[in-house]
Amino acid sequence: MDLKKDVIAYLEQSRPVPGESEEEKLACHYLDVGVIDSMGIVRLIADMEEKHGFQFTEDDLQSFEFQTVGGLISIIEKRIHDGQV
Amino acid sequence: MNLQDVIAHPVAPERWLLLNVFTKTCVGLNGQGLAAYSLLSAGQEPGPEKQHLWDIERFSNMDGLMADPSRFKRDANEWGDGRVLAPEEFKQELRDHLLLPTQSESDYLERFGNKKSLLDRTHFGNFHQQVGQELFFRRIDPGKWWVEQKFAADRKTVRTDNLYGAVQAEFLKRYFPDRLRPGMDVIDLGCGIGLYSGQMADCGANVTGLDPDEKYLAIAREQYGDRVRFQRCDIGKPGGLDAIPDESADLIFMSDALLFYYVPVNPKETASLDVLLSDIHRILKPSGVFASMEPHSVFWLAPWFGSPRRPFTLLTEYAQKFFGVTPTLERIVNDLGKNGLAVSHMEEVKPPPDLQGPIGERDLHFARNFPVWHIFESRKSWPSG
Q: What is the per-residue pLDDT for A50?
């Protein structure tokens, strides 16, 4: 499964990510629209880190990018890539 | 924003703090930078010279719930070299720190609302939300952090290196023997890890410690289970204290807990102050006392300015709360009153005059002049039932 689908599926465990197209889903501010709550985001971080074997940095968590589905996916991609080089 | 939200305060020779007192954002400047700021604030351009700017913001509340809440690096020796900025960069930094206007007044005021999520950095939110977000970014376990504010690593004593030890624990060391007699029936409401329950039991009282959190109660039972009865209860929820009989307590004691019934840490929390206070009224004996020791409604979280021995503070809010999470004094007295509890004694708790110990000089003098806790004692003004 590719990472994009994987992360969206993870977020959609309790509630669908709004948006007709994949593009719209990737632009979604998942916390603002209540796709997951604050406890959910803490779990998401732990689960992604464990599954892919990396650590988000403090800057990752504070970044604007982290707040959208697409941004989150690209941070995860970057961290996975960093771990492989 | 409005320029009048900003103050400049000297912190060392040729070193100025420029602070937006409402947003608690700041930079450090020298005299030349301050002069440039003065021109910018009047809508003039200060000229082509580069300006020195120091990044001195720090989330000082991470040092503790009762620590200096001023949020800037106070010691100019720790400012480092700072940055030398071209005029446009300098101006942008001042805008980014909300020291020069960037947006309309209404957009600025909108930012003082509650955070919409854990990641929301647009809204400043209240104190709980700010601390929660900071803990999240730093990946610190909130449950552990809150306990560590007050208790030493062994969880058997209150930390002596901050105001919890120097003010609260010192006060209660005198207060419990003064108020308690052997055989009195006492409820420690929101007992947490049971330290104060244990101290009250040591005065000869029959103490029951109640808390909603089984994790804390496990520690409490291990330490004080031989002399205190601990029980899990949903304090403040309907029926939560039904297991406790009517008119059974001489003293109901609560510390650092009532404020959470005004502004909960978790906004979805459903416990209610009126349920709590009517339960307290029901459980108190006719001559019983409810004693609640809380962070001071005026001075807790107020910034610490001035020299260590001659502190002053600046209040930015009291009746209209955006940042603070304590109720006003009026609300405490009237909420007790409407639930049949009349205030019989109130004390603003200060460090003992002879205190010596590992807390800082600034903490000590601030807390002496601007108490960071108060205790309200109330008694039944009408009978139960």
A: 92
